[in-house]
Structure formats: C-alpha cells, structure tokens
Amino acid sequence: MHSRKSSFYLIGLVYFIAIILGVYVFTWMPHFMFIYRFLIADLAATLTIYVCSLLLKNASLYDPYWSVIPPVLLGLAAWYYQAWSIHVILILFAISIWGIRLTYNWASLWTGFDEIDWRYQAMKEKAPHLYPLTNLLGIQLFPTLIVFVQLSHALIVINHNQGTFLLSLLGALIMIASAMIQYIADQQMKRFKKNHHGEKVCIDEGLWRYSRHPNYFGEVMVWWGLYLFYLGYAKSLDVMIIAPLMMTALFVFISIPWMEKKILKTRPEYKDYQAKVSMLIPFFRKEKDESSTELA
User: Fold this and answer.
1) What is the mean pLDDT of the segment spanning 125-136?
2) 127: left (phi over 0), alpha (psi -120 to 50) or beta
3) Is residue 112 pLDDT above 90, yes or no?
4) Phi-psi bin for 225: left (phi > 0), alpha (psi -120 to 50), beta?
5) How far apart are CA 296 and CA 193, in angstroms?
6) Is the dihedral of CA 205, 207, 209, 213 positive or negative?
7) Which residues contact 44 (CB under 8 A, 6 or more apart)?
8) What's the rounded mean pLDDT across residues 173-181?
9) What is the DSSP string of 78-139?
10) Distance CA 204, CA 167 (A)
11) CA angle, 158 as apex, 251 and 98 as ends, to 5°?
C-alpha cells in the first residue's frame, strides 16, 4: 500500500516515462504527416499509462492524463515548429491555465492508489472478465482520442503559426473564464461537502443554483474557446467544428446522464431539481420555490 506522498511520486514518474516515450515515438516517424505523428505519440503515451495501470491495478492512474497532456503536447509542438506568434502564445497560456487548475483540483482530491473512480468500478463489476479491454478502450483510449480531436485544430494553428488576433484573444478569454467557472464551482462543491459531511443532501447554492453541472459547462466552453483559434486561422466553418460538438455531446449524452442516474439512486429529491434547473448552460430557474439539489 502506497502513502499519498509516495503515490504522487510514483504517478509523476509514470507520466514522465510516458511523455518521454511519446516524444521518442514522435521523433522516430519524421516522414509521417505532422498530425499523425502527434496522434501516434499521444497513443504511445496512453498505452504506457494503460500498462502501468494494469501493474498498479488502478485505472485511475489515467485520470490526470486529460489535463496534463494537452499543455505538454501543444507546448512541444510550439517548440518543435518554433512557432511563437501571438496566437500560439495565447493558446499555450490559456491551455496551461486550464490544465494547471484541473490538475490541481484532481491532486487535491486524490487520496492515492487505494482510490478508484466509481465509474471504473461500475464497469468492472458489470463485466469483470472484459475489464482489461474496457479499461483500454473505454477508460483510456476513447478519452485520449476525444481530447486529441480537440487539440488537432490547435496543432494546425501552431503548425502554420498564424490566425486572427481578435478571435485568438476571444478564444483565450473564453478558455480562461471557463477555467475560472470550473474553479469556482469546484470550490463551492468542496465547501458544501465540508459543511454537510455525512449528510445525504444536495447542493443548491452559488453557480449550482443555475446549472446542474457548472463545472462541466466550464469544461465544454474551454474547448469551444480553443476552437476559435482554429476558426481565426481557417476563416470559415469546416469539418473541424465537429471537435467541440463531440466534446459537448460527450458531456450531454454520456457524462451527465451517468452522473445524474447515480445521484437519483440516493437522492430522489434530485428529480425535482432537474425540472427546475438547466442541465448545463447556466440559466434562470423555472420556479421560485426551489428545494436542495446536486450531489454533495
């Protein structure tokens, strides 16, 4: 059994090895199209995390990958192409703010390798014999591919080192503001849990009064902000708009329904809240007489 401190050292070592291996794979394929080189390098790093998660018997080893790898990947791309235009600098600054905040939030809540995400545990209990495959495809490769699709248009901007200043600035401001929304929502939830420790009650205060999932709203808006950088480069809508649409769909049709189904099992009053409060986008409540809500 690892202590929390030693667990952080171990997870840091694993991610360092994964990033180094990814860089090696990238340099090993100089004749591939740049977007495929980054994709294969990203997959190589993911597979490293996957193998280590099997050895450590904990799929939650992958959890920080979502926020750690995007700033690293885009930073390495800027260094490789020596792309330091204002557009690229704004991308790197905004994605770093988001990544640092989300990684810090994960680290502040993570207790060590004795903890595993409840969703992963549910997958394992539902089909234990298929869990190694579920871990690989559903827990690790699928999120990696979803995030890479979001990053692909940023990689194009970095590769060409150009864009439209106003859209780049707007994209950066949206990303930073969205990260702040996530931070505020997470802090409000932490404070609520502390004040109601051990109680089966639901949060209905702060940002949570106007959105059932303000933290998810912030996450979705980060990727729409990143898309604006590409829109400023392309100067027209094209197939790349599928990237933020995919991320939005992931939360609206998978993450949120799964979370709310879990909440309703222990807090049936949550159903009343669902009828009154917007699912994702903060908006006016439908009734004046509200009762408490959202998972504590």
Assistant:
1) 90
2) beta
3) no
4) alpha
5) 5
6) negative
7) 21, 22, 25
8) 98
9) HHHHT--SHHHHHHHHHHHHHHHHHHHHHHHH---TT---HHHHHHHHH-GGGHHHHIIIII
10) 35
11) 40
- Integer angstrom CA distances of residue 141 from 52, 234, 243, 290: 14, 28, 16, 41
Other C-beta atoms closer than 10 Å to the C-beta of 91 total: 31
- The model's pLDDT over 193-225, given as tens digits with 9 standing for 90+, comes to 899 887 778 898 999 999 999 999 999 999 999
Integer Rg of the chain from CA = 20
pLDDT of residue 291: 47
User: SS3 for 295?
Assistant: strand
Phi, psi of 200 (to 5 degrees): -90, 70
Cα separation, 250 vs 35, in Å, equals: 23
Strand partners, 295: 202
Mean pLDDT, residues 252-265: 93
Q: Which residue has the higher pLDDT, 275 or 294?
A: 275
- Read off the amino acid at residue 57: K
Question: Is 55 exposed, middle or buried, given 0-12, 13-18 or 19+ CB atoms closer than 10 A?
Answer: exposed
Q: What is the pLDDT of residues 31-74, one digit of tens each?
A: 888 999 999 999 999 999 999 999 999 999 999 999 999 999 99
- For the whole prediction, is pTM greater than 0.85? yes
Counts for the chain of helices (H) and strands (E), in that order: 12, 0
Share of the chain above pLDDT 70, in %: 96
> Concatenated DSSP letters for 143-211?
HHHHHHHHHHHHHHHHHHT---HHHHHHHHHHHHHHHHHHHHHHHHHHHHHHHTTT---B--SGGGGT-
Question: What distance in Å separates the CA atoms of residue 245 and residue 241, rounded to the nearest whole number?
Answer: 7
pLDDT for 111 beyond 60: yes
